[in-house]
Design goal:
- By secondary structure, the protein is of the alpha+beta class.
- It has 2 domains: 221 residues, Rhopdopsin 7-helix transmembrane proteins; 147 residues, Alpha-Beta Plaits (2-Layer Sandwich), CATH 3.30.70.
- The protein is built from 13 helices and 6 strands.
- The strands form 2 sheets. Strands 4-5-3-6 form a 4-stranded antiparallel β-sheet, with helices on both faces.
- Strand 4 and strand 5 form a beta hairpin.
- Helix 1 runs antiparallel to helix 2.
- It is elongated and about 110 Å long.
């Protein structure tokens, strides 16, 4: 028996058994997928063992005929069936039932072959021979390969084209190993190629699910960070920004420069009660766009139903006095406008600049902006 082949087989067996144990610790796959991957690895290990001893018995004739029959029967029965287990490991539930029934037919025919040797037989010297109907085994192997290719194609379509190309390369390993073994029985690459495919598929599925999880988290974060109605930053983003600025304020070595503008929409409740909430939503969107136009270089946050805050930075911080005057003129003009309430873009605004000598946190700046905003609101009501 070739020593290199023996060492390779031992490595394959240990790898499969190690993965069968380690897969239980996987935190990405669900319990069902973990179970099916574990069964796949165990079956791969069993198939490799049977293949090895079948070759050993065939070359040495050291085993009783019945034992040689048994290990070859297990080897031929498992090989095509592994496609079903690997497919189920990939999360394919709908297609495995008909394929399982189909592959069970292979097991039945292998069982029949034990009695008449139509697929394979073992002679009295414990030597393996291919039977007259050996093509049946080849047919089921080909069917299993086409099935796993079909499964990989479905995964590729559901995800991305490059995933399918990667899976195609993984599937080609099994194809090359099985075809080589069928063409030349002395090339013992059948189960080794299946083991390599199982390992690569396991790695691939983990990476694919990990990327999908990251993408899902990214999308969820993007949704939570933006207000659904106005598309500006949300209250969650505002809280994160406060934390960021508070850290900079506490770090005395950091030069912190920012200002806050707090805006509160006028007459929103009256518009909702008079014209309906759809009109109220349109009013919020129009006012939000106007506020954003004043602060083109700063983030705007919707922190409540009718409350918006802008944290002035960059050019907006430099041009604070100019922007403040523009906002003042605009808000007074809108209040005096003769248009109906729902067509106006009316809001009160209060500004405050961070003062390193007095402000200990963002909240200190926010309080001053809030106070000025309410003073502005009272003033606008008296116009």
């Amino acid at each position: 028996m070739d020593k290199n082949y023996t060492v390779t087989i031992i490595i394959c067996i240990l790898s499969m058994l190690s993965l069968a144990i380690d897969v239980g610790k996987n935190t990405i796959l669900n319990r069902e997928d973990i179970k099916w991957f574990r069964l796949s690895f165990i079956l791969c290990a069993a198939g490799v063992i049977c293949e090895y001893f079948g070759i050993l018995f065939d070359r040495t004739g050291c085993a009783p005929q019945k034992i040689h029959w048994f290990v070859t029967y297990i080897e031929f029965s498992i090989s095509p069936f592994l496609a079903v287990f690997l497919a189920r490991s990939c999360g394919m539930k709908k297609t495995i039932k008909p394929m399982s029934i189909f592959m069970t037919l292979n097991v039945i025919l292998q069982t029949v072959s034990l009695t008449n040797g139509m697929i394979f037989y073992i002679d009295s010297q414990s030597i393996f021979y291919r039977g007259t109907e050996y093509w049946i085994y080849i047919f089921f192997c080909a069917a299993s390969f086409l099935y796993i290719l079909f499964v990989f194609a479905l995964i590729g379509i559901k995800t991305k084209l490059r995933n399918f190309l990667c899976l195609l390369l993984i599937a080609s390993i099994t194809l090359i190993g099985q075809v080589s073994n069928i063409i030349d029985g002395s090339i013992n690459s059948g189960y080794m190629s299946i083991c390599v495919t199982a390992v690569l598929l396991y790695i691939f599925i983990q990476n694919m699910l990990r990327h999908m999880m990251i993408e899902k988290i990214t999308v969820e974060q993007e949704i939570s960070n933006h207000d659904a109605l106005t598309k500006v930053f949300s209250r969650i983003s505002f809280d994160h920004k406060i934390e960021e600025l508070d850290k900079k304020i506490k770090d005395s070595s950091t030069d912190v420069k920012f200002a806050v503008c707090e805006c509160d929409l006028n007459n929103l409740k009256l518009i909702n009660d008079t014209f309906g909430h759809d009109t109220g939503d349109e009013y919020i969107i129009k006012c939000c766009r106007t506020i954003c136009n004043f602060f083109k270089h700063s983030p705007v946050f919707r922190i409540g139903g009718d409350e918006f805050d802008a944290i002035l930075q960059s050019d907006d911080y430099i041009n604070l006095d100019k922007i403040k005057e523009e906002v003042k003129k605009f808000t007074e003009k809108e209040v005096k406008s003769s248009r109906i309430l729902s067509e106006k873009k009316s809001f009160a605004a209060g500004f405050a600049v961070f003062d390193t000598s007095t402000d200990k946190s963002f909240n200190d700046v926010m309080k001053r902006a809030d106070t000025e905003m309410y003073e502005n609101k009272k003033m606008l009501k008296n116009l």
